[in-house]
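Researcher: We are triaging several targets before committing to wet-lab work. For this one, the compound of interest is zinc ion. I'm pasting the protein sequence and the ligand SMILES. What I need is the predicted three-dimensional arrangement of the protein with the ligand bound, expressed as structure tokens, so it can go straight into our comparison scripts without reformatting.
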Amino acid sequence: MNPDLCERAFAEAPERATLGGMSTEAEIVEQLRALGVRPGGVLLVHTSFRAVRPVDGGPLGLIRALRTALGPGGTLVMPTMTDGESVFDPRSTPSVGMGITAEIFWRQPGVLRSTHPGGSFAAAGPHAEEICRPQPLSPPHGPDSPVGRVHALGGQVLLLGVTHSENTTLHLAEAIAGVPYSVSYPTVVEEGGVVRTVMIAETDHCCVGFRKVDDWLRAKGLQREGKVGNAHARLCEARVLVTVAVEHLATDPLVFLCPADHGCAECDLARASVP
Ligand SMILES: [Zn+2]
């Protein structure tokens, strides 16, 4: 690993070049089912549309394909996180850095959005209400949060053109394992008409270390991989993901942080927070 890896983490996936013909919704549905997306299941999707495109119907075509693959009994979930710099209104505040697919998804009729001022998620389907119900402010991705509920419901995690660096369920694993690092960020909240800024603690770092999970899952045949549109897709069970990550965190609680001498400011901050 080199010190620049952290900065590249977020630029790399969206910039991946896409070539080839337009995928139809039917083709995407077929690819999702072949990958192992479970009809009637709960599916948490992190996606970079730039990696998947071109898709007939654009991001909305991809959303329709995901919902068709899940069927009427399935629940589709996407992160719609925000920067916490202004009062969060789940009906109007745009997501930040979650991609165009998630941004369009939460705006669709019948899609619910949770109310965490920084860590909101959107969901559609039979379990949407349960997944989006109110949660504690900290940790944003703990057992009592949308990702925690996807995990409790036996859901699947789909990474569509992104890596495990974007996989929020690994923050759930950190919470369950009780990792010793935590970084707090100022977040605007409104309670009873009073607006104030609170510090919300989370297990934050550059998240490049999350990519180690690829090897851990592949070694045990616990990750399905394939093409969806032009994107490389990874699919795994949320419970399996958490179990495997917690096992590694039990051996080394700092396994996801960049080494101390690698010049990663975010991981150094997390490391400095360890009591
Ligand atoms: Zn780092």
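Researcher: Any quick observations?
Model: The radius of gyration is 18 Å.
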